Amino acid sequence: MTDVLRHRGPDDSGQFRNEWRTREPYEAQPGVALGFRRLSIIDLSGGHQPMANETDDVWVVFNGEIYNYPALRNRLEGAGHRFRTHSDTETLVHLYEDEQLDMFHHLNGMFAFAVWDGPRRRLVLARDRIGQKPLFYRAEAGRVLFASELKSLLQVPDVPREIDPGAVDEYLTYQYVPHPHCILQGIHKLPPGHFAVFQDGNV
Questions:
Q1: Angle at 118 between CA 21 and CA 59, to 5 degrees
Q2: pTM for the model
Q3: Nearest Cα to Cα of residue 114 among 5, 187, 16
Q4: 32, 123 Cβ separation under 8 angstroms
Q5: Count of structural domains, the chain
Q6: CA 133 to chain centre
Q7: Taking Cα atoms as reference points, which of 36, 100, 85 lies closest to residue 62?
Q8: Contact partners, residue 139, CB within 8 Å, separation at least 6
Q9: How remote is the C-alpha of 77 from its chain's centroid?
Q10: Rounded to whole angstroms, how far apart are CA atoms 51 and 95?
Q11: 195-199 and 122-127 beta bridge pairing
């Protein structure tokens, strides 16, 4: 999925995989696989992604730039968080730890990102208010796929490639397909200024 996004991030690539776990017999726990292609803007040497918190149980993949990250970083360091890099990505990791889903009230920037909260088995997808950075997703029984571009999702062999007739009507009317729809059935664009939470089989 990440190879087709090389043009978006030619400087670096990374992956994180957390396999399914079983706490009790026959009780499966959801896992996650995160991949990333990076265009280096801030902290060229230390901004490798996916990026984790101090205890490696909250992970982030982030596309964009947080303009007010220095002020957020100062506040978070004052609260006791230990930073290992100078990147704005790590600010998101620790801000999520402190604020959870209220973190979005504090962000000024252009972004699309995903947070994997291991202890809560929760995936959060988010997009900036203007929608400068894209984010596509497909929610199915037992899994969620997401990417910055539609063609990345189409690298997964069993993702249907059926045209959505309603989206075609919208395109012919408006010359684009409005959020949250996509030209393909079952795939959605996260609207600007929104976040989506996937947890315990619910959205």
A1: 125
A2: 0.82
A3: 16
A4: yes
A5: 1
A6: 11
A7: 36
A8: 188, 198, 203
A9: 24
A10: 13
A11: antiparallel
Residue 46: predicted pLDDT: 62
CATH (domain of 112) = 3.60.20.10
Chain CA centroid to CA 75, Å: 24
Percent residues over pLDDT 70 in the chain = 77
C-alpha 139/C-alpha 90 separation (Å) is 27
Please give the Cα distance from 163 to 52 (Å, whole number): 37
Pairwise CA distance, residues 116 & 29, whole Å: 13
The amino acid that residue 31 corresponds to is G
Q: Give the number of residues written for the chain.
A: 203
Q: How far is CA 47 from CA 41, 93, 104, in A?
A: 9, 12, 21
Residue 53: both structure tokens together: 């918190």
List the one residue out of 189, 41, 200, 5 whose CA is nearest residue 112. 189
**Cβ neighbours for 169, distance < 8 A, ≥ 6 positions apart:** none
**Full domain range(s) for residue 128:** 3-199
CA distance 44 to 66: 15
115-124, 142-151, 192-201, range with the lowest pLDDT = 142-151
**190 close to 135: Cβ distance less than 8 angstroms:** yes
Local structure of 48: helix, strand or coil: coil
Higher pLDDT, 49 or 5: 49
Sheet with 109-117, strands from edge to edge, namely: 51-52, 58-66, 109-117, 122-127, 195-199
